[in-house]
Amino acid sequence: MKRISNPTLYLRSAYFIESLKITSGLSGTELEKRISVNQYEHFGFFAPSEDTVRDYFRLHRSVAFEPDKKSNIYPWLLAAELEFPGCSMAFFHPIFDLLFGTLESSAFWDMHFNKIPEEWIKEALDQGWSEMAQEWVLMNQAREKRLHRAKKSTNNNHLSFVHQSMLRITKVRELLFSQQTNGQYIRLYADISDELNTFAALHPIERITAILLCAKEAELIGNHSRFQLTKSDLNKHLQLIESYMPSQRIKSELTKHILEFMEGMIVPKYSIKFVHGFSLPASWRSLYDEHSLNRIKKEFTRKYIGTENDYCGNKRE
Asked: What is the Cα–Cα distance from 306 to 252, expressed in whole angstroms?
């Protein structure tokens, strides 16, 4: 059997498996047995087969992270989390959300708790509560229309996504945010060199993630100098992935995706020629737009003909 083909599931599974083995001090066989006994058999549940779990450790299949509605076996990632609290963080680590986007559940789970169950509607009709049943039907229909019109989320391009990802890592939250009296957090900006220096206390993957998040933040707020410094700092510390035990198995592929991600980031630059008339209605911009078109015509005429012609094609005296 080949390895997991989906890049995000491959990297998530590998980082989770290696982290679990290191933090627990157990082998794959020992982990399979302990989780099977304590989290499945103890509660009378069916456990995934030994071959299935062995495939998780070989990275031949992704670690199951959500229930299969057709199966009575709950996901092994959940069982591992119950046995070793906090271990699933490696699978759902912010670095993978940033590089690939957040994981999406199957359509069944996306819909399951976001619509009025059909059995409720049927029960309401059976009880003679037709108005309530009709309102529930209309609510479901309205939701389906909203889903049909909805565009695919690009939340990893939003500043709030970047800040929430920072908040998920406890030490990064403590370094970059201040908690207010109402319990909410605000981002505290300092000199980027000082921020990058504070990341030295983080373990390698958290450090790389923090630098990446700062780079993405700089791109989104349009701060070119912050972006260049974070990019330089990332290049300096990227080799830490090779020496960090949980990421050694995926060092080459993870490094490749990080570099591709950085390459795809561009801090916006603006030309003053496009600022004139910005946000004004087209009727107010018409004279400027006409002037711009004529200027473009003259530039192309000079480029391809070598002289400026008027609109009728007559050579200018």
From this structure: 53
